[in-house]
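Notebook entry, structure prediction.
Reason for the run: the old model in the group folder had no record of what sequence produced it. Starting over properly, with the input documented here first.
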Amino acid sequence: MTAPASIELSIVMPCLNEAETLAICIKKAVFFLRKNNVQGEVLIADNGSSDGSQHIAESLGARVIHIREKGYGAALLGGIRAAQGKYVIMGDSDDSYDFSNLMPFLNKLRNGNDLVLGNRFQGGIKKGAMPFLHRYLGNPVLSAIGKIFFGSPCGDFHCGLRGFSKNAIQSLNLVTHGMEFASEMIVKATLNNLTITEVPTTLAPDGRSRPPHLRTWRDGWRHLKFLLLFCPRWLFLYPGLVLTLMGGILYAAILIGPLKLGTVTFDIHTLIYAASAMVVGYQTMIYAIFAEASGILRGILPPKKINEKLISRLTVEFGVVTGGLLIFLGLGLGLISVYAWHKLGFGSLEKASQLRCVITSCLALTLGTQTLFSGFFVNSGRNQ
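New structure, fully documented this time:
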């Protein structure tokens, strides 16, 4: 076995009952290392196989480590930690990827790239290698979301064959244990400004007779959920902003009197819904700030100048002053409403003008209270 100090490349394969295809994958990887005179190792991250996969790997000279924590991501995290090479190339052990043709990945790594992703759409997808939904819906949609949300340069977000600098990837503190591990790696690498590139790679049909571990809808949802939770702007900020603006415009149009569009009249009841839209939208934008601040403080999201500048201005004092002004406005309008109610002998407030005052009072009180307490919440985890 090659001494650890001289190992340049670790080829890591996650394994869970892959006896049918593991041997051919290891043989191809060993062939690649010998043919190209690369000092390396083949590392099998076994996730609890019960079909003899471990014995097959050891008989072919591969190093086997045992990962107790279940999941695709857990197996790879364990494999990456145990890898002795400067670089790591990971790939599934189902014979869908060609481990004998890894030189394009290694050359890119030697040229200074931190993460090299395979692109199956550029290299070629053989007939029957990728399900219809994955090829034309799941992968293109999730890859597009990755580009829009995070500015990722990747055209094949979920290619399982990828190479990277071990130190660079370990600096990202990857934590997910499921299939969404593939998304987490790209998202965090992009957000942390690692150098990312792609190389064309081929995808062959799965060589196993049993169904794959991947579950289309379950794992697709886990990937999408991860992308949404990792991007508070798209999950919270932009929808909240749209809802607040639409509610505010409608509220302003109806506040001065009924709005007539043809034979349809929008009045008090519509005003209530517009106020509700503003409250929900405003709260959703506050959630975006909470999520962003929490992610930065916990080291999950890298700080950005615009984010830090915004969060630094959301002081307790800002929340108290801004929220206090809104609460003061709400109380003032409330007193006006009580006075109008008094003049009616505390009877029914039925005039539209009176109800508009009450609704606006409630809106100001609600937004003011949210603003006041949000200032304290955002600053609760920050050194004062």
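Summary: The two ends are 55 Å apart (CA to CA).
The old model has been moved to the deprecated folder.
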